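pasting N-acetylmuramic acid 6-phosphate etherase for the record, 311 residues
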Amino acid sequence: MTSTPHHPDLRSQLETLTTEAFRPELAEIDQLPTLDIARLMNGEDATVPAAVAERLPEIAAAIDAVAVRMARGGRLIYAGAGTAGRLGVLDASECPPTFNTGPGQVVGLIAGGPDAMVTSIEGAEDSPELARADLDALALTADDTVVGVSASGRTPYAVGAVEYARSLGALTVGLACNRDSALAAAAEHGIEVVTGPELLTGSTRLKAGTAQKLVLNMLSTITMIRLGKTYGNLMVDVRASNEKLRARSRRIVALATGAADDDIERALTATDGEVKHAILVLLADVDGPTAARLLAESGGHLRAAMAAALG
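structre below
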């Protein structure tokens, strides 16, 4: 096996990261009963929400900045390698069915491309040039947001994506799990959720991955709330693409309006299954085309459309 000159430097870098720290008190974990290991792991996982809570002001500031740009037509783009990249792709892929986002409105980039979702792509995470190429393929604009995600906070793909995006005037967010990270420093909004050493040394798919999932959930969900994709805590922009979601659509309309089942069916038929439009039809007593016009004029915000309808 050959080694390249940067390996000793990389090893010394990793040794300074809390996510990579060795915990001697767990050195005998493989000899414990399964239930004891499960209790240890569960106890470790329970510390993650508190670590996220410490960064809520930074998370909220990033969300407000993202929402402003997305309201102008910008995109939310996640960029990461390995577990971090997969979590970004996961969050992005769940936005269309949950919030009826348009194609390409929320994007997950993973170093090495789609194949890297299920296979380790050798060397992809070490290439900032690859990140630049992936962003160039999206024709990045100043209204877009790029969120670099990396547990270590030093992954060249994530750091490179943020640096390049910032040079083009896009909003940048750096999500890392170590203090004083290059990723957070490179971004306009740095978010460092320090989750500490892992149960298995360096296995950042554990606590660090859980923290990243929680923060990405917040970034997308609260941004969509700010954009009017919800009515209260109801997913009024849900895309009814299967029978379960069609049933959920009817239930959401019922919860929002209290209308009878027959009236709900008529409203959904009149609005081609659009939940938000159907709610407006029922609550403001307007027809389908009027509901569509009012929502378009209010930027998709149901409360504003209802206020306009009711004068």
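Residues 171 and 184 are 13 Å apart (CA to CA).
The beta strands are 76-80, 106-110, 145-150, 171-176, 189-192.
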